[in-house]
Amino acid sequence: MLRARWPQVNLTSLRSGMNNLGTDVVVAGAGPTGLMLAHELALAGVDVVVLERHHERTGLSKALNLQPRTTEMLELRGLLDGAEERSFATVQDGHFAMIPIGYDGWDTRFPFQLGIPQAQVEAYLEERLAAQGTKVVRGAEVIDFVQEKDFVSVRYRTDSGENRLHAKFLVGCDGARSVVRKRLGVDFPGVDGEGFGVVADVLFDKIPAGAQKQWRTMRNVGEPTGATTFKGLIPLGEPGLYRFVYGDRASRPKDIRSAISHDEVRQALLDSYGETATVSEIRWASQFSDAARQAERYRVGRVLLAGDAAHIHFPAGGQGLNLGVQDAMNLGWKLAATVRGWAGDDLLDTYEAERHPVGAQVLHNVAAQLGLTPRSHESRALRALFGDLAELPEVSRYLSGMVSGLGIRYTTHGTSHPALGSRLTDQDVPTEAGPLRPSTLFRDGGFVLLTTTQAHVDTARAHAYSPRLTTQLVTTLPWPSTDAVLYRPDGYACWVAPTPTR
Q1: How far apart are CA 383 and CA 217, in angstroms?
Q2: Which CATH number is 196-289 given?
Q3: Pick from 484, 499, 493, 482: which is nearest to 426 by CA?
Q4: Which distant-in-sequence residues (6+ apart) come within 8 Å of 143 by Cβ?
């Protein structure tokens, strides 16, 4: 197993002179994005230090789902079994503006959402990261940095004072109010939004009538309650424990960052469900807005942005955590290849080129979902008509592809081929020894070549930005006139070899 240089991090020892690097990469923030990125880097033998301002994990459930594409990516690294053990539900559909949409028509082994609290995702990824020899340095808040030609000098604060750490790269995964993004001077354009929402985990003595007992579908978990108001209940696996969501898309409090009191949540429950529902405990509550913003750039020199530091949006469709984790999977192998000297600087530029449009598309579909708020007679009619359209298989597939990430396809240059830029579907491939599940070949984070002949191995290696190339002989491939396909470490096809003309 590859181990990072700093298996036991001593904050004082990380101070270094201007000519000595403390680590290869500093990751600011230990949320799902930062932890997934650190996992990818450590897997490639890159020295990485994760700095997290909180002294301990909050334990707050926050986001609740892994979309099908994120699930596929975790399976590539052998991380899915552990995530499933911590999950509490399998949800057979998604939603678009609370209109259910199915995953029918997508070639995937995971046509569902995995219900798992963000806190459990973070705990599991941190455990796996520690097993690789990399620990999260807690109570260490990044406050500033200076870029030089060959390194970044990162200044951070701990309880004992300020420290400095030099690295080849810094990645800001430090959330919507990212210090890294602000110090980098990257604009964060967008809209402040008009409304707000509240999420709270509540324990009922008496569950409201009609509430699901187990989360199996997005049907009947949320609904409009007025022209712009909404409410929803999602069971969280523990008896009587629910995620309560409510808000108003046309009313914004003076201070959206202010804490929401438990009394306010109790009143909202009373207004929504009356006295027939009784609550014994409110475990936590948080307020959020429908602001939407995206960083103009994801990279400036040796500093990059990912996750909420790069984009924020209303949590419509359950896309936020998933967008960040997929950022990390895209960035991880590219940054590792650059640090290890396997690739030139131009490869790292493709992170922004590929992920910025994906982030923009998510903000676009979230805005469309908010546009289906039934504010008037006309918008109610539009929403009803849209609901009818969403029942059509082609429409449902299109919408679910956007929200789930299954529809992502990266632009490739050169030969046109149906596989290029597309994701690995992970269906069994035929070999002389019998059927093989391709995802098992991606465990070490390298490139994977599926080929009917060894003749293309050397050519494929020239397209792989890493010495790690796993070759698998197969008897056939699913595309006509194709005898080799090369997959990147994040599971997207980047090169094919056509069958020679006879």
Answers
A1: 20
A2: 3.30.70.2450
A3: 493
A4: 155, 156, 157, 162, 179
101/96 Cα distance (integer angstroms):
7
Which residue ranges make up each domain of the chain? Answer: 23-61+119-190+293-344, 65-116+372-408, 196-289, 429-498
Task: Please report the pLDDT score of residue 500 as a whole number.
Answer: 53
User: Which residues, 6+ apart, have CB-to-CB distance to 34 below 8 Å?
Assistant: 27, 28, 50, 52, 171, 173, 174, 306, 307, 328
Instruction: Look at residue 502 in the predicted model and tell me its pLDDT.
Output: 43
Report whether pLDDT(322) > 70.
yes
Q: Which residue, chain included where needed, has tokens 């990824």? A: 125
Q: What's the burial of 392, exposed, middle or buried (CB within 10 Å: 0-12/13-18/19+)? A: exposed
pLDDT tens profile 334-370: 999 999 999 999 999 999 999 999 999 999 999 999 9
What CATH homologous superfamily does 23-61+119-190+293-344 map to?
A: FAD/NAD(P)-binding domain (3.50.50.60)
Token look-up 């939004």 returns 193
CA distance 36 to 122: 9
- Mean per-residue pLDDT over the chain, rounded: 92
Does 295 score more than 50 pLDDT?
Answer: yes
Give me the half-sphere count of Cα atoms (radius 13 Å) on the Cβ side of residue 215: 30
- Topology of domain 429-498, per CATH? Glutaredoxin (3.40.30)
Report CA-CA distances (Å) from 155 to 18, 160, 162, 166. Answer: 13, 13, 7, 9
Residue 15 has pLDDT above 60, yes or no: no
Q: What is the mean pLDDT of residues 462-471?
A: 94
